[in-house]
Protein 1
Amino acid sequence: MTANPVKPARGLPSSNCPKFWCIDFWALVTVQRVLLGWHAFVHSPTFNEIGHLPAGICHWRYQMFHLYRVNPPLPRMVASIPVLAMKPETDWSNYQLGPHSRETIPMGIRFAKVNGPRTFALFAVARLGCIPFALLGATVCWVWAGELWGRSAARLSLALWVFNPMILGHGSLVMPDVPAAATGAMACFLLRLPNFFIQTSPRGLFGHRQRPALRRDVNPLPG
């Protein structure tokens, strides 16, 4: 009798999964980087975008998160890191701490006024800090599609992400849209890995009593 071949564990990369040194991957990712970098420098800040950058600066300088509290702070905090090195001017007048305060856009307008023409350079640098989120989404598309259906599917999935008008339009903005899509896709991909939470979580994060349940039900998505 011949033994049946052992199937690879679900959620683990197969031998047909495309590698990161493929010319297809780096060519498409480079195209996206060029397009988003060009967008970051030639377009003026959008209306909602002007509030995110000063909010990110406030998060770092004062550890206060009242500004733009309706959106997650991570994207604007990442974007504001290189801007802090440029020592931008700020105007925190009329900064309100109330739960219903929505001073974000007026704060952004004052930020633009005190920095004058330099505002465009500040936003261009901040936008460059957001581009890695789009590259993260591209990487997830490449790896996930390649793991499931091979290199052709990986190439198609990556091309759909790279040339998606929504990604090209929002990928370099100091906004949470593309970062949320990219990190959400990464979270869904990681949830497919066997025992991901058991192997990577700190000992006290879930507790020993919850771990048996997680071990039985760790794959919410079909492989």
Protein 2
Amino acid sequence: MDKLELDARGPTSQHTPSETQRKAAVSAAETAIRARRKLTNKLIAAHEAARLRPFLAADVKLISGDGALILGVDAVVEAFAGQFADPAFITYVRTTNDVRLDRDEARAAEAGDWVARWRGAAGEAAMSGTYLAVWRKVTGQWVLESELYVTLDEPTA
């Protein structure tokens, strides 16, 4: 049984993490997720589809900006490889705006904005939108469980 102590806020349990400890843990998890997102952006810019595999859960689910559903790590990596083979494709950049963790710090929701860039007939073209990603911690590493991309700005040339 937890031993209770009194402080200015009332009774507290010695086994309950302090608010400072909880924020530090959340900050470490959020920092890790943001860092992993930046790494995936770099791999996409380098057109290295196979190197995205460790960032994806085996049963990953991705809904692309056009509504297409892609299921499983093999299919997602294959989809990226197909885009990377297109000489017009430049990159996708996902910018994290918010990360929220569950109480157990086993899952997290990441929300942000994305931009796709490719070479068009009139120069560089782009489209963009918003995304929501679900991360889960597997053997100490954050992997993508699912991603939903919503296209909000149609292609511009």
Protein 3
Amino acid sequence: MKLRNLLLAAAIFAIPVARAADAPYQTATLLNVQQQVQRTPRSWVWNTPVTFDELVSYELSFRIGNTNYTSEYIPNVQPDGPIPTEWKSGNQLDIRIQKHALFVKLSYDGEIETHITGRHAAKNP
């Protein structure tokens, strides 16, 4: 009975691990990087905002084959968080796509997760 329960528990924990296998990396061309700043008023004096919160995000455009992807990256450090130096228009980057996330492999180690905000067929140049 204990052996059966142990095997059942092992099978239950093994299924998500097997399903979470990472998608393979693909080579993509970075088309554009745009910084966006969203200012939210924090305090007001009469009808004039006097202090703000700023949220800095980056809109990244990639081309993979015949598809263009647009994704959003929000640095953990705000408002002046660094972005990778290899994020320059025209650079080739290794990326992988999982559902609504696009992961950009970094040259030094690891990867950065961005949120896919759009995808559409690429126009022929």
